[in-house]
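Q: What structure does this chain adopt?
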Amino acid sequence: MAIEPLKSLYIFADIETDSLQVNKILQIAAIAETGEQFNIHLNPKAELPLSCTNITGLYFHKGNLYKNGRQVPSVSIQKGLRDFRKWILNFPNSVHLVFHNAFSFDIRIIVKQFLKFNIKFPENILEIHDTLPSFRKKIKENEIKDHRLATLAEHTKVELNNAHDALADSIALKEICISFTKSQNLDLHEFLNLYKKPTEHFFKLEQERIKKNGEKR
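A:
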């Protein structure tokens, strides 16, 4: 009897950063459609902008990362990226990584850091998916005030109590996509596949940017 190939696995992910300009990644989190979770905080090793603290609750004090007054276990960016790579590679499936606003933000930041520290990106991640244009396509502007995650959570009646925490946002994104596709009688994977690009696309873009600017990795 022939062995059936493993189905591709969709993993919903998010990052938190110190600002929109992104000098530092502070948290990487993800949840697989099968329920496995990843969550790690990264030590910025420097003070964070007040605007970052106001949004995320994160701040740096005497060598440690804190959130809302409590110390948060944190690791170096290099260890965080390696741990994320290891977690992804533990899945025997080919992986599709899903973000909300992936193409303009999350994946560009992650790819930049993997290249900067010369760490191999997980080889089993085949494609990057962006749910922001998918929701913009399926929910018209006259039906919703915007397509931010919190607004979509309210629209789909998904609970989101800890916005701007990467794990909470990853879980919410997964539940929002499931809730929305069920309500519209859509196939979840077909919806997630509306906007996707191969992983290599983003590495090529970043490498071209580095070459153009004459930067060292």
